[in-house]
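In the previous chapter we treated chains in isolation. Here, by contrast, the input contains two separate entities that must be folded as one system, with a combined length of 497 residues.
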Amino acid sequence: MLEATIKKQLRDFSLDLSFRVDNGSILVLMGDNGAGKSTTLNIIAGLVPPDAGKIRINGSVVFDAGAGTDAPVEHRKIGYVFQRSAVFPHMTVSENIAFGLHAQHRDPAFTSRQVLRWLDRMNIQDLAGVRAARLSGGQKQRVALARALATEPSLLMLDEPFSGLDTESRRSVKEVVRQCVADLGIPCIFVTHRKEDAKVTGDRICHIERGRVVREEEVSRFFG
Amino acid sequence: MTRPPALSRYPRHIFTAAGAAILILAVTLYLVLPVVALFFRSTPELFLASLGDPEVISALTLSLTTSVISLAVIVLIGTPFAYVHCRHQYPGKVLVDTIIDLPLVMPPAVAGLALLVLYGRAGLVGKYASWLGFPIAFTTLAVIMAQIFVASPFYVRQAKSLFDQLDPAYEMTARTLGASPARVFARVVVPLTAGGLVSGAVMTFGRALGEFGATIMFAGNLPGVTQTMPLAVYVSMAGDFNTGITISILLVLISFAIMVAVRLLAKTEVPHA
């Protein structure tokens, strides 16, 4: 479970959010460009420091302004997929998936098993030895997702992961995301400004305007 | 947009083409003629005979050795320096930016004099080094220090430009996957900018190899100790001119090889995420 209370003064407005995401559930952060959605994810990941607040992932406090706790990015156990998939073009697909496991000094046998498992799960076995620079947009997003999930994160965060994908890739990646979150039983935050993506992928929707939650509801009620 | 008819008229086009050809030819000849003249001044027999001259061998060995050491120091320190400089905001960053470029506009002789004032036998630092039995000025170390001083901006500027262009999403992703900043630098940042870094390193090597002004001021002109190839060319003016021509031809050939290498390796663009 993710519990977050975040305060940060941005250039034009103050980001002031509080939300909770249950295990196996997907919270969609929706809002216009510049509403503070991506900044929220970066704060949770530890890439941007908040001014105040508390962030607890799976029972562990990773940030607490009051207690002076601020876990480094690499210790937060978060799978983060950016809009630009950022697959490492100089590595093969397998090397990309294994990157986080190597960085975390996981057992080599476990690393190999995880790479095979996620190649299989994302249906990209044929691409194992292909350099990531040669992949299509949809393939890159699958690799990015596999790479993020192979480390068994406690939280999955997706920042506009479907933009730039064709309709078919979009549909299949959405399906994979839903299945993986349900199977792994981890909380997931999904940032988008597209209603149709939110409708199909999310469980709850948090609509943000200028750094504040203006509406939070179940997907069915939000669009009902 | 279609061209105005007046601009595409035949005679005018001819005139423009001829003017462009003359301009290109004039600039190219101005640059290439002195170099070609060097080759005409020597013969293959003379060139090969001078190649065996101990003075040439000594200058060549010293130049290559010191330039390789200088390049290694510049790359090993300059790469992480440029990265840290690009990725962090700190007081005086603009000033540091200017200081990095200073050796590019400073006359090399002035750079050599400045190094001598600091590291010479009576210099602020040099007097302590001499007192400890490790004089710096007029040693091979001084040659290396002069080369580093003059050539480092070529590499650091290139590295800075590459790191500025690199999409931060790569580094952010690697950090969230559990990689330490050092691992991100070694496994992601350096490989993604490697082409441009190598091309910067080749240019830097070329600049170090051709260093003259700062070296003669700070390291002197001692054969076998501080007399690099450009210094040997200078000395030959008062002695064996053929030796100077041979060394010059060698330097031209090395410079040409460097330019070819840069052209082949030039990859100043970094991949987008």
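Chain A touches chain B through 27 residues (CB under 8 Å). Chain A is about 35% helix and 25% strand. Compare these points with the single-chain example from earlier in the chapter.
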